[in-house]
Amino acid sequence: FNNAGIEEENAKLADADEALFDRLLAINVKGVFLCMRAQLRVMQAQGSGRIVNTASVAGLIAAPRHAIYAASKHAVVGLSKSAAVEYARLGIAVNTICPAVIRTPMYERAVERDPKSAITIERMHPAGRIGEVTEVADAVVWLCSEAAGFITGHQLAIDGGLTAL
Q1: Cα separation values, 134 from 54, 66, 125, 147, Å
Q2: What is the pLDDT along the chain (165 residues), one digit of tens a residue?
Q3: Active site residues
Q4: Domain range list for the chain
Q5: Which of 19, 91, 133, 136 is deepest in the core (most CB within 10 A)?
């Protein structure tokens, strides 16, 4: 399970900082690449395995004022889909979870900076709330289980209906 990423951007693309671009891609994309490469080598040797990468709904839809973050998460989806096809016949499944806003320390810090944003964030999800960490964890456990044995190359949106809009 590859779950690391940062999201520090809040600017239009023309105003974006190149150093932030490099930092976001180094953590959000290169980190996943390095982990996947190591995992795939072990899984090839053992003859099977499951990889779940964390992207974001920003890897499925547009994210105004967060174009670099969205690009990094689209890259995670692309890495995952390509690896899924390359390694499926070897018994290795690669899937991606794409959560919307989840109650995490990153979310809590954002709400501390702007308490009114919590209401806006909850309302943007058709479910009328944000997701919980346990909902993400349950999805990852399922994708790693035999119950999901024929699922590879999939992007699972954990988003309270956001990408259905």
Answers
A1: 14, 26, 18, 19
A2: 999 889 888 899 999 999 999 999 999 999 999 999 999 999 999 999 999 999 999 999 999 999 999 999 999 999 999 999 999 999 999 999 999 999 999 899 889 999 999 999 999 999 999 999 999 999 999 999 999 999 999 999 999 999 999
A3: 69
A4: 13-164
A5: 136
Q: Which token pair is 139?
A: 């999805």
- H runs (alpha helix) in the chain: 18-25, 31-46, 67-87, 105-113, 117-124, 133-143
Q: How many residues does the chain have?
A: 165
Would you state the structure tokens that stand for residue 19, as one six-digit string?
Answer: 């150093």
Look up the CATH architecture of domain 13-164. 3-Layer(aba) Sandwich (3.40)
Contact call for residues 77 and 155 (beta carbons, < 8 A): yes
Sign of CA dihedral 99, 12, 111, 124: negative
The CA–CA distances, whole Å, from 21 to 8, 15, 97 equal 10, 11, 23
